[in-house]
## 1
Amino acid sequence: MAVFTVPFFLAEVRGYSKMYDSSADGPGKWYDYAQFPLFIAFTDFFIYWIHRGLHHKSLYKKLHKPHHKWIVPTPYASHAFHPLDGFAQSLPYHIFPFLFPLNKFAYIALFTFINIWTVTIHDGEYAMNSKIINGAACHTMHHL
Ligand SMILES: [Zn+2]
Ligand SMILES: [Zn+2]
């Protein structure tokens, strides 16, 4: 997964993305806050469709089944993917800063949040009980 991701990070550090250093370099003060829900909405939308596509019979067995071999998920399963599966589901995170401005510190914060989120939906601790937000109970049902 990391190998496939290197070109994106290389392009980002070489200045080809819309990432910026401080609030003064961004679109405005309002965007310091707006980039967070925009990033979550964008990535969640596309990851939903990519994940759904990975469940198509032509892709599932080769690419996505390695993740679902954990019928009862564990925190370790959250990062256990076929490399192309993991890369495909990470694509929206890497494409976002090429389409929309993104503060580099917000990017790190969002990456940290997403990693924690990914672990928590696989940890079997049903801390979230929401019809809107995907939690461990919902994702455990998906694995079952
Ligand atoms: Zn799945
Ligand atoms: Zn899973």
Note: The radius of gyration is 16 Å.
## 2
Amino acid sequence: MSAPDLDPEQLDRYSRHIIMDDVGPEGQANLLDARVLVVGAGGLGSPVLQYLAAAGVGTIGVADHDVVERSNLQRQVVHGDADVGRPKVDSAAEFVGELNPDVTVETHETAVSPETVADLVDGYDFVVDASDNFPTRFLLNDYCTLAGVPFSHGAIYRFEGQVTTFTGEGPCYRCLFPEAPPEGAVPDCATTGVLGVLPGTVGAIQATETVKHVVGVGESLDGRMVVYDAAEMTFEEVTVRPNPDCPICGDDPIESVRDVEYAESCAVGD
Ligand SMILES: [Zn+2]
């Protein structure tokens, strides 16, 4: 086995990875070669970006079309007070650049739609869904599952979070939730509030799953969803089984996300 080409600064920066048998110089080289897309530079995306950047994921895509608002700062920790009004992708890219010059950031200041999702996702090895809405969540599931791109799912609500990983070997998000709830049925953070530290915990688990996938170590959450209750401080595990009738990963899947209406209900087949 040839020693990966790590320079002296990298040997120092990643030394706590390199001395681990399960990571080592080869695992670190895999991280430096990896291309990961993070969709959403908000509450979940912030810790994901922090830890992926620190771990030396060589290319990180950041997709977000919002600007930083002051009400974001209670939980979106890659943005600072001086960033209010700036595009989140710019503020996030600056944060990553200051943390680790090894990382190349690719910014995508765009909404994720059936028209843009292929250009956005293609070319990345792994996708982190750190979005905050059902249309994006279902679209990413559908596109990544059909295209064979593994991805992490995370969601937060008041004191509760859920997180899982879909590698393509097991179920997909629609096996668990066939269709999105009607628009307005599940209130968003702006109307219900969210404990500021909650996305930190959930996003850190998403980052953990991403790093494990790239290094090729451990057991992923594929087929399992972790449900975290910050108020009770409990972690429960829910088994997720593949649904043979799933319209995305079942026996008779749809051909393209362009056949699906995502704007409101995210229903397949309507
Ligand atoms: Zn499925």
Note: Residues 171-172, 174-175, 243, 246, 248-249 surround zinc ion (CB under 6 Å).
